[in-house]
Amino acid sequence: MTSALMLARTGSVLNSNGEVEMDAMIMDGETLKAGCVACVQNIKNPIDLARFVMDKTQHVLLVGKGANQFAEEVGIQTLPMSELVTDEAIREFESFKQYGNAVHQLFGKRIGLGHDTVGAVALDISGNVACGTSTGGITAKRPGRVGDSPVVGNGGYADNEVGAVSCTGHGESIMKVCLAHSVISYMKQGMTAQEAVESALMKMNQRVNGHGGVIVVSKNGDIGKYFTTPRMTWALVKDDKLHFGIEDGEDNCEEI
Ligand SMILES: NC(=O)C[C@H](N)C(=O)O
């Protein structure tokens, strides 16, 4: 079993109304079944709700009020919005003020403070791959804005014939180039996992001037990870070893 993670820097993100709206997706590479939720409020772990959408409905994506209604039906834990708002999110909101500024501060080539998204990819011993991506989006986004994370082929993709991908970064850029699926396409064309993530992110940068980060595990257990921001928190478990890092070129290793 091989798995890789990108980790969030903060717990939540505030939109321009000062509210938390979260997006998440999960995808099963064996069946290509996916479950996605967007703009959900008061949900502690939107990825759990996405899993219910995948397992218990005939749909792929539920949004807003309907998604919250479904959460109630399946007994997903809800909580007051105040409990989802961290001090860091408030500080970020007060300092960034506007969406464009937040994008620049979080994903700018030189500043790149971090990615408020959690992503995971995994390969099990039966050769099944899966991905999951969960986010609060980007500070000061317009209410109702949905980013790449809950959109199949953008914030993530999983296919046993190729591998599983999870993305972070400027959602509008990622959606313009279908970043997760372009990594899959490059691998189908014969690139290694690492070549594919580097090519896809460089292409996104050239075409739409966007920055981000990607993790991928191939069907053979090869890992690719790359980011065009100055830093991205990541971790990888393979062959009883834990690798992790934040800065460019950093790769720490511990036995587990
Ligand atoms: N931090 C992120 O990765 C944000 C996410 N991609 C979005 O645009 O919603």
What summary fits the major beta sheet?
9 strands, mixed
Write the H/E string, N to C. Answer: EEEHEHHHEEEEHHHEEEEE
What is the end-to-end distance? 14 Å
Give the overall shape, derived from the CA principal axes.
globular
Q: Helices and strands: which structural class?
A: alpha+beta
Number of helices: 7
Name every ligand kind in the structure: asparagine
**Which CATH architecture?**
4-Layer Sandwich
Under CATH, the topology can be stated as: Glutamine Phosphoribosylpyrophosphate, subunit 1, domain 1
Give the class-level CATH name: Alpha Beta
Task: Assign a percent range to the helix content.
Answer: 25-40%
- Cα-atom Rg, whole angstroms? 17 Å
Number of domain units: 1
Strand percent estimate:
25-35%
Give the mean pLDDT: 92
Q: What strand line-up does the widest sheet have?
A: 4-3-2-6-5-1-11-12-13
Low-confidence stretches: none
What is the CATH superfamily label?
(Glycosyl)asparaginase
Secondary structure tally: strands: 13
GO biological process, one term: proteolysis
Keywords: Autocatalytic cleavage, Hydrolase, Protease
Pfam families: Asparaginase_2 (PF01112)
Family: Belongs to the Ntn-hydrolase family.
